[in-house]
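Dear colleague,

Following up on yesterday's call, I've attached the two folding results inline so they're easy to grep. Please treat them as preliminary; we haven't cross-checked anything against experimental data yet. The first protein's sequence and structure tokens come first.
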Amino acid sequence: MAKNNLTASIGRVFTENLHLKILSLLIAIFLWAIVSGERNAEWSYLLPLEKLNQPEALIITNNIPNFLDVRLQGPHSFIKNLNPKNMAINLDLGELKVGSNIYPLTADLVNTPRGATITRINPSYITIEAEKLMRKKVNIKADIKGTPAKDFFIETIELIPSVMEIIGAESEAKEVGSLKTIPVQVEGIKSDIQFDAAVDTRGRKIILTSNDPVRVNISIKEVMSKLEIKGVMPEIINASYKTTLKPGKVNIRIEGPKSLVAKLGESGVRANVNVSGLRPGVHKKEVELILPEGVRLLQVYPKTIKIKISKIKL
């Protein structure tokens, strides 16, 4: 009896809803036929090379490609629609050493999706040259181009900061004693200039630890000139009595910017003798000169003059 029930139960598994079971089987066979019948295809992608775990004390000194040609194989409709942004070649540099390091590029380094097989990576290996990383401070100098206007010159050049830190391969950084700014043009200028300038590191395998520009302050001065002016007649000021000077003229020597000194030579120099408070009689006093800013007196001859004050009131 039990045996008959078991047989009947097994039979019902295969006979109940038979039409649905047959339909499901046909659909499965159809899908299998589509998938298995789709031909495989190969597709090339440029995948990014991700350098992982690079030691902080080392720097790579040769050019490493950022992208590599990777050929993938799989069902045509699947392979051609892959997004390369979701894939990368992950190269672990944790064991990087000073010198030449050869890394084979194998399929297990690529995070490919299921259903895709890597058939080729080009190149099949890369060589990485590494050196010790060096930090040092170097002087910064302004790269001056041109010359100021005629009769003008550069008095001082101030850079802020005048020292900056660089990072680079030890062999390169050792050779760097100083760096220059980008060219600074001073052709034809007559006055002080201030501006910001970048530091030029072109052609060097180094970087600056700061991206801030350098402040360049250039002081421009005019050429100094000396001039002797003879026969300057002092003016008597604040006189209450009739007053005479002996000698009535003095000679002077001055020094100052060439353009100012030249103007003084044409227009003359004002000289005064202040007799305020002096009583009738004979006195001696220094001559006072009125000079523009930037011009200095080198000599007056005579330094003092005789002042004769009469009793005649003005």
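Below is the second protein, in the same order (sequence, then structure):
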Amino acid sequence: MTGPILHYYNIGEGATAFSTTRHGGHSKGCYAEFNINRYCGDSEEHISRNREMLCNVLGISDACLLMPHQVHQTRIAAIDEGFFSLSAEERSALLDGADALMTSVPGVCIGVSTADCIPVLLYDKVRRAACAVHAGWRGTLKRIAEKAVAQMTAVYGSRPADMAAQIGPGISIDSFEVGDEVYAAFAGEQFPMDRISRKDVKWHIDLPECNRLQLLSAGLAAGNICVDNACTYKQADTFFSARRLGIRSGRIFTAIVMESTPGVERHPLAPFMPPNATVMFLGSFPPQRKRWCMDFYYPNFINDHWRIEGEVFFADRNHFVDTKAKCFRREEIIAFCRERGIAFYDTATAVRRLRDNASDKFLEIVEPTDIRALLQRLPHCRAIVTTGEKAANTVCASLGIETAPKVNTFVDIPGLCNADGRQIVLYRLPSSSRAYPLSFEKKAEAYRQMFRQFLLT
């Protein structure tokens, strides 16, 4: 399988815009082949595999591939840096009930799901902001595209004259037959019915033109608005059409992702924050993906973090290791950490790698993590734990700690107590990297002592 076949748009320098087609994925039947919408009945296994392929094409992590749960209304959700510090439940709640997403964060792919409805992409290359809009006939009636332009102006300072728009594949006027009540609703909202409708046996409405006119009304230049003339109903072999295939069928994903600053790498994982956590590990930044054996923290198979935890808690260094597959048992690790209350993230959300290796020495921190915001999600946290000099120094700079603790010691963090009134400390452990000159047994004993003091009491 070659991967998803994408329909690309030239929306402007510094951004990639596209619509998916039905081709190049794993889904079956009316979802075949490429569907990533989780709300239409497709297999979760197929959706996950399709998402993975799309992320590989775009060069992003799964956490940065965002689609709202649309409800044919006009709520527009803004995706900022803080979104990625939210729990999975909080991120899901923000996406639920939105019919448009907008962002100024590079490297984040925002998109909407359609199968006859009209997708609209907006891009402001001056202020580096983008928006993806789902405009079904109800959203079009409520002028969601016009509202999206106004929201980008309010939030990012965008000027309509600087914006480019792409109207993606949707149902054409020839195929969009409606009842008298829908025609009356558009007429009642003062749409120019002579330009957006015609009557054959029944009324037909031109949804792409409705949205183009809204964008013009909002101030976009006519030359900056492109319309894809593909009709989903007529071309259901290429694009999904709910009218042609039924509601239980796949969906088109029309999306935009702005390029990151050259050389800057954004954090590929969401913070892992069990609400019962008393210990939070903060590393420096994950290694390059080519060194991963799983999508979770400490993913490098030759790093001994999970072997140490296996030894400490189960007297078996291979408890979390799949020796045949040469990987860690991700689901077991996540379940264990949730149960025990062990949180994970890193001290940087964006870095620049100065050399092609995993050494902290060659990481330049572009954007440090807001550690206080993480602690607000961990009311019972007693210890921030670092295992490297760079991470320890970054925590000290962020939280006003004058002197970093030596290995196997801890210091109080000034002015920081948890919700139980207990002092939060910064604890430094030896690195679990095999390059660190200490035996496995001594590292395991050091971790055991820390866990006894701050996790098991």
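For the second protein, one point worth flagging: The chain has two domains: 6-258, 264-454.

Best wishes,
A.L.
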